[in-house]
Design brief:
This protein is an alpha/beta fold. It folds into 2 domains: 279 residues, HUPs (Rossmann fold, 3-Layer(aba) Sandwich); 80 residues, Four Helix Bundle (Hemerythrin (Met), subunit A) (Up-down Bundle). Helices cover 42% and strands 15% of the residues. Helix 11 packs parallel to helix 13. It starts with 24 loop residues before the first strand and ends with a helix. 48% of the residues are buried. Bound molecules: zinc ion (ZN).
């Protein structure tokens, strides 16, 4: 496993309050369902973006998640905040083990090779690495400690199954359950079945109770613990990683919209029962990316991979610009024409920032910052930079510093190197 290389982020000067700019980032969060400030006014912003299950390569839908929240990271930094960023990697889970079994690979080797590929894709896309990138298998003790806190609160039980008495969490009894996703019970049951839950498992007290510790099955990895020999459930892994690194009540838990329920709802429920305090202050989700009319997913096999595009010779900055051209909360469809227009944009911007002079950078950057601080409006930011670049390429402006300032700002705020 190679290290996730750091990304240099230029600092670009900004005058606080100039151009009437908001001095905070606001997002339309899933829990608030309206535009609300995220992160503190000063100090440390805590970001947790749920990581991959490493059994298949990084597709455009994953990349959209990590690039979108990379922009949040960058915009917070631009506001002078320190960002603490944690991400997990679900390196022991049913889909990974099933894939390894199908292909005859060792599950650990499969995970390691896919984590390496993910990191190299993220590096190519200039995603600022998390401060903590934590495999579930490295924090089994933390998970067990957290489950013991839930046990002390009387909130877990063993399912009525003599062969596999797995441990479940009484999720729906947690204070505030439902306030992340705002789904009704029927919707929750549907989402739970679709996204890794087991509403129909016999012996559960309630269909929405979620697995926290799975007892050992023959041929599956397992760890000794006070709960018996087994392995963690999915949600509790992220809850433990986030609480032990970012602390309670950190700024944002984020991911694809399909994680709102059950995953983030369950994380929030587990944390509030274990600690008595809220988990994340806000929950933010990106839209779903489709290909050929269907949501891009491993199970359907309709994937466009970052590594495939790059190996075909596409500039990773073209991929990044194609992603940034979509608003993070929108659902959209990947198509080659998006890469073609991103390539034209990249070429134009590159020509403009290498021009000897241009129009002043500061008013343009104020508009870019306004867009990004207001629900990460990357399409607006791109349009504003397009206008600046068109003007420069038309020979307007005599500011010798402007092209260099714009190049640095586009790198700092959008992660696009020109
Ligand atoms: Zn997670």
């Amino acid at each position: 496993m190679h290290a996730w290389r750091p990304v240099e982020v230029p600092t670009i000067p900004a005058t606080p309050g100039a151009y009437g700019l908001p001095d905070e980032v606001s997002l339309v969060t899933t829990d608030a369902r309206r535009l609300v400030p995220v992160g503190p006014q000063q100090g440390v912003a805590g970001l947790y973006v749920c990581g991959i299950t490493p059994y298949d390569a990084t597709h455009i839908g994953h990349a959209f998640t990590y690039v979108s929240f990379d922009v949040l990271n960058r915009v917070w930094r631009d506001l002078g905040l320190t960002v603490q960023y944690a991400q997990n990697v679900t390196d022991v889970d049913d889909p990974l083990l099933e894939r390894a079994e199908q292909t005859g690979e060792d599950w650990k080797e499969l995970a390691t090779s896919q984590i390496d590929l993910f990191r190299s894709d993220m590096e190519a896309l200039r995603v600022i690495p998390p401060d903590w990138y934590v495999p579930a298998t490295a924090i089994i003790d933390e998970v067990v400690d957290l489950i013991e806190q839930l046990r002390a609160a009387g909130s877990i039980y063993q399912v009525d199954d003599p062969r596999y008495p797995d441990w479940y969490f009484r999720a729906a009894q947690a204070p505030g359950f439902g306030e992340v996703s705002h789904l009704n019970r029927a919707q929750m049951l549907g989402e739970f079945a679709e996204h890794g839950g087991d509403p129909d498992r016999p012996g559960k007290e309630d269909a929405l109770d979620c697995l926290v510790w799975r007892m050992e099955r023959s041929g599956e990895p397992a760890w000794d613990s006070s709960l018996g020999r087994g392995r963690p459930g999915w949600h509790i892994e992220c809850t433990a990683i986030a609480l032990n690194r970012l602390g309670r009540d950190f700024s944002v838990q984020a991911g694809g919209r399909d994680l709102a329920f059950p995953h983030h709802e369950m994380c929030a429920a587990e944390a509030v029962v274990a600690t008595g305090e809220p988990f994340a202050q806000s929950y933010a989700h990106v839209g779903m990316v489709s290909l050929d009319g269907q949501k891009m997913s491993k199970s359907l096999g309709n994937l466009e991979l970052v590594s495939r595009l790059v190996n075909q010779g596409m500039d990773p900055m073209t991929v990044r610009l194609a992603l940034l051209a979509q608003h993070y909360r929108d659902d959209w469809e990947w198509m080659p024409s998006l890469a073609e227009s991103a390539q034209r944009r990249l070429d134009a911007w590159r020509a403009a920032v290498h021009a000897p002079t241009g129009t002043a950078a500061e008013p343009t950057l104020a508009d870019v910052r306004y867009g990004l601080r207001t629900d990460l409006d990357t399409p607006m930011a791109l349009a504003v930079i397009d206008e600046w670049s068109s003007a420069v390429l038309a020979g307007e402006g005599s500011d010798e510093a402007a092209p260099g300032q714009m190049a640095a700002a586009i790198d700092a705020l959008l992660g696009v190197t020109l």
